[in-house]
Amino acid sequence: MRGDTTRAAVQNEESRTRELSVRLGIVTFGFVLFFVAIVMKLLSIQVIDVEKYREKASRQYLQDKVVQAERGAIFDRKGILLAESVQRISLHADPHIICNTPVNRNGVKVEEDRAHEVATLLSGYFGKPRDHYYSLIKRADEQQRRFVWIERSLPVDVARPLMEHPVQGIWTEKEQHRYYLNLASQVVGLVNTDNKGISGLELKYDSDLRGHNGLKTFQRSATGGRFLAAGAEQVRAEEGISLELTLDADIQAITEEEITRAALQSEAKGASGIVMDVRTGEILAMASYPSFDMNNRSNFRTEQARNRPLADAFDPGSTFKIVMAAAATEVLGMTAEDSVDGHGGTYRMFNKTISDHEKLERMTFRDAMVHSSNIVSALTAMEIGPDAFYDYVTRFGFGRKTGVGLVGESSGIVRKPETWGALTLPWMGHGYSLTATPIQVLQAYATIANDGVRMKPYIIRRFLGSGGETLREFSPQKEERVVASETAKYLREEYFRAIVEEGTGRAAAVEWISIGGKTGTAQKLTDGNYNKGKRNYISSFVGFFPVEKPRIAAIVVVDEPKRGYYASTVAAPAFSKICSRMVACSEPLKEALGLQAPELAALSSRQVAVPLLDGLRLQEAEELLEWSGLRLSWRGDRHGLVALQDVEFGSMVEAGSMVGVQLSLAKGGADREDRDVQ
Length: 678
What we know:
The chain is an alpha+beta fold. The chain is built from 22 helices and 30 strands. It starts with a helix and ends in a 14-residue tail after the last strand.
């Protein structure tokens, strides 16, 4: 019995020994496998996938930073800065480093929370409450963010204390801030927060202005410090090109001021103005109202970027009669003394009525132009014929873009003769059944001013390198001879000078300077209709000076004026002020015009043109005179209309002068500018 027990015990011991051996074998095998795995992993890291892990390690301690190229500047023709990039400093922090700053205390390395200390320092430098910076840092640290902006776009002088005394965990970044002179906003345009052009020249020439960004590679130390990595390729940024424009900042400012004044005083929807050198096609000013603050872009809306002189296409009305007059002179051989019939101010054509404001009868063609007869213009266009008339329309540049070099230009609408209806030609004769932009209308008058040669308008003068050297220069381009030189001179002297001296353009006159031009008060096409009686008009004046040998052409367009909406009382005075002020401030123009001291004094005086008051109610006349800087005295029936004014329309008088009127219940006088209506 005892032997059996002993034998069983021995067997159990052997069994346990075998089991232990198996377990030890398994453990040993596991250790061997683990060791082999480690060896294989090390082999993989150090030999097989060495490049992969080297790249991964580099990403952990190397950091690439794009160096933004300096954006090129934009200058006017005299070197005045219209747009430039100013260096600003932005600050960002690593909250983890600030809240866990390694420090050495008695030979022992510990981590210290320096958020309070850093926040106090920042508050002292930049003026914001300490709690502002403390909350910013701590909140980011709690969210385990390793990056937070502390300040953006600081002037260099403001950021200099921190730049000269660095704080561990805070870094400075050089950024660009675009600064504008606040002139020609729709022309120059804007950049967004990423320094990318979003409108105007900033958009059109964005790739040229931006230049080429550089690249710097930094290495991060164990304590969070950053320094340029040794051996890494550093790419230098290349500055963008600069633009020199044809604009004159002084003339631009004058134009903006005067169209803004005209728009505000007439309670208009908008306004535009352009000034051009007729000999070269250079744009000296291009203005739109309303405008916007270029240095306060928080309230900027895309529609404010609309460049009205290029984008607004409208029925030009009487200003388009330049085409009819040119074709009549060359195709029909008409002269200023030829007799034409005004048909008493009303004429039926194809069951439609064409009207003139005045009841004109037989007169000379010159008088028809001076009084802006729609009837004579329509009948003359019919006599010229569709093909010849269309030929002159296109030769003057209507129906296609001028190619001035700006975004957003409209071509206007000019249909081909084969699509015309019975009324198209006579209506085109006095400026309807087509649309044109202000710059197209101006180009047509500049062509006559330039002895019949159409020049291409342009606004970029030169591309400049970073050292101011010329990279590319733009020159005047003759596009086409539209009319003979003799024709152009004849039109200037016989018609357009007379319109300003005797007709509807008298308010555009400038003392001591001969002005030629044309008014236009055209009804706007709204929803396919001309809404009569609602005063939806485009009022414009376009002209040039001096008539004998023109140098400058300009146009003023006022969109939907509600007070004094005739072009003679809204657009023409603004034209006069632009021309007189620009001559007074331009030495080259003074020399070219041969003006002496007394004449220059007259240009600089506060003289204003007396508006046409005929047919207005007492309140309307009073408001219009007040707008013009004049005072009103009246006699007669206060409920009547102005039948007579004591100071002739278009006369230049001192600001603040009194103008007397006679009021009558009978209909007002007839010496009124035509309204181009349908």
